[in-house]
Amino acid sequence: MKRMNRLETFKALTRDIDGINKSLIALGFFKVWSLIFGLIPLFLYSFLVNRVLVDKNMNELSPVIIGYLAVFLFATIGITVSKRFSNRLILKYDLRIKNKLLKKYTSLDHDVYSKYSIGDVKSRIESDSTVADNFFTTHILDFIYGVVYAVALAVILLCYDWRIALLSFIFVPISFLTVNFLGGKSKKAKGELWKLQTKYETFLHSNIQNWKDVKINNLEDAQLDELNGHYKKIRPIWFRSQLYSHLGITYSFFTKNFITQLFIYFIGGLFVINGYSQVGVLLVFISFYGQFFGNIENISNSLINFKNDSVNIEKVVEILNLEVGKRPYKKIDGTDINVENLKFTYEGNDSFALEGISFSVSKGEHLAIVGKSGSGKSTIAKLLTGKIKPQGGIVRIGGIDIYTVNSESLSEKVSIVVQEPVLFNMTIRENLLLAKADATDAELIECCRRASIYDFIETLQNKLDTIIGEKGVKLSGGQRQRLSIARAFIQDRDIIIFDESTSALDNENENDIITELKSLSSGKTMISIAHRLSTILDCDKVMVLKDGAMVAFDTHENLRNRNETYDLLFQNQYVAGGYVVVKNTEDIKPLVVGS
Ligand SMILES: Nc1ncnc2c1ncn2[C@@H]1O[C@H](COP(=O)(O)OP(=O)(O)OP(=O)(O)O)[C@@H](O)[C@H]1O
Q1: Distance (Å) from CA 380 to ligand 1 centroid
Q2: Per the database record, which ranges form the ABC transporter domain (predicted)?
């Protein structure tokens, strides 16, 4: 991809953001103000040296002092006001870009999320807006100011003594080359450091999130060893990156304060001795040159930093440029599901997670999907809800190809209840209302009853208004599942997919909910990814998956004792799962301890 320059990047990052240009003009005005009042002291200094000191004209000392005081006053006003404007501008930009990113992220299709590893939207917006803000302040505002200031100083230097100026400009390319060289080395070290730190932070994050499991499994020492391993790898690279950055600082200090000054003293001295210049001119020149060279260094650093930062900046631009709503909204009327020759491979995997899957589920039917762990059951659920897009094949609901319509069209038709439901740190009521904003209390209570969670809610002090903590942490796994099933009942979609959504329930609760599901199923199409095979006996059809392929699709009666994979699943579960092994499925019952 072609690298974008600053202007192109600026346009891309400020597109459709109103009110930025006006603030930029106001800021530009006060920046020029500060620049002018930053230059005047140099002229006053020149006046002081040449007219007052060299010409021994003490009468002109007081105008110089008054001039200095006036400039100080105006410069302070300029700096204060431009600071206020730049803070306002940056804040305004930060809010607008966050808003734009939020709108973009919430309207993107599901498959974009996995493609761009968007993950946690909140932290993604934070880091993207930081990248954009940083570009705006350092690579636009500071850079432009630095360039304008350096050009103004270069012109003044040339006007002052063009011969010394031209000779001293030799340090400009040297500075650019050196900063470029050290910057390149530092960038490489920082790149390595970033990779190692990302791994370390991921490790730390998962450790903190799962600290209970770490403690329960007595893994503290092993985790500490791993932490030390991360440190050992990070340490040398960190030292290397620090070394280059300190070399840069030392180089800058040395050239600015020693080499360039020595050079100008020497060359200037020769000019003065030979009568081409005067001591006063030289002193003023050195003072101007110090500022000029400082700016040149800032510009070289900014060029390098822009190169380093552009990888992240372009990622943000790419996200902002992503086409939203490419697929149109279309009302899906029918409820039949028709799947033809579905193929899907996860990014980075060599083998298919699913291949050659074809099946149909008619309106009102209940399909169970069974198979060993990793056989592809959840992948089918993700494909049917449009969360991922297949590399081959087609899924039609009500005759409409679901990958040609937007996610809104699909979510009106299909709801999914998953093993680990998404619950928010809000009240039970608010979590339920996410499914249907205008649901009445009577509706909420009815659905909670059907999901066997209402008795529990009744025991809580604040009933439906109880806050359930982050990710529903104040609830048990089974309670979280029942709440999410209640949410699906409230949503009342025509197609409901249950992806191991009763796995954390005890048999009694599971049976209650299954009974509810059955009563609910009239006219609805249901797909259950079964956790316990005892729950699928009444399903109209059973799909048996093995290593991503569909090995059978029939009724339970037809599969039992006839399909090897299905039989094996049955046997394994009822022996390992604490059930008595039976000849006839009607006899399946949990093994009661002590019986
Ligand atoms: N996000 C992912 N990235 C890469 N590979 C994945 C991803 N999700 C699943 N897979 C792989 O795809 C295959 C099918 O996974 P899937 O989750 O559909 O299986 P499953 O039958 O639902 O398993 P389980 O019963 O354990 O939940 C597995 O081999 C799995 O490793």
Answers
A1: 10
A2: 337-572
Is residue 346 within 6 Å of ligand 1 at its C-beta? yes
CB 353 less than 6 A from any atom of ligand 1: yes
Question: What CATH number is given to the structural domain containing 429?
Answer: 3.40.50.300
ipTM of the complex: 0.97
Q: Is 174 helix (H, G, I), strand (E, B) or coil?
A: helix
The verdict on residue 121 lying in a domain is yes
Residues 6+ apart with CB under 8 A from 406: 109, 325, 327, 328, 329
Burial tier of 592 (Cβ tally within 10 Å: 0-12, 13-18, 19+): exposed
Asked whether residue 278 is assigned to any structural domain, the reply reads no
**pLDDT score of 355:** 93
Q: How far is CA 537 from CA 480, 504, 515, 533, in A?
A: 25, 19, 12, 7
Range of the domain at 454: 414-492
Q: Can you give the pTM of this predicted structure?
A: 0.59
The pLDDT of residue 284 is 78
Q: Of 107, 130, 161, which residue sits at a domain end?
A: 161
pLDDT in tens, 518-560: 666 567 888 988 767 777 777 889 999 999 999 989 888 888 8
Looking at the fold, whether 524 and 447 belong to one and the same domain comes out as no
DSSP-based three-state secondary structure for 349 = coil
456 and 590 both lie in a single domain: no
Establish whether residue 373 lines the binding site of ligand 1, counting it when its CB lies within 6 angstroms of any ligand atom: yes
How do 495-499 and 414-418 pair as beta strands?
A: parallel
Same domain, 28 and 65: yes
pLDDT at 573: 61
Specify if 388 maps to a domain.
yes
| Ligand 1 atom with minimal separation from the 499 CA | 22
Among 342, 372, 377, which is best to mutate for testing ligand 1, by the most ligand atoms less than 8 A from CB? 377
> What region, left, alpha or beta, does residue 424 occupy, with left being phi > 0 and alpha being psi -120 to 50 degrees?
beta
Q: Is 523 exposed, middle or buried (0-12, 13-18, 19+ CB in 10 A)?
A: exposed
Asked whether residue 124 falls in the same domain as residue 150, the answer is: yes
Closest Cα to atom 11 of ligand 1: 353
Residues 361 and 471 in one domain: no
| 308 close to 367: Cβ distance less than 8 angstroms | no
Residues of the chain with pLDDT under 50: 575-595
The domain boundary residue, chosen from 100, 135, 161: 161
In a domain, 86, yes or no: yes
Q: Are 67 and 122 in a shared domain?
A: yes
Closest by CA position to 418, among listed 360, 534, 502, 301: 502
Number of domains in the chain: 3
Q: 102 and 80: one domain?
A: yes
105 sits in which H/E element: helix 61-107
pLDDT one-digit tens code per residue, 317-332? 888 887 765 678 888 9
State whether 442 and 561 are in the same domain.
Answer: no
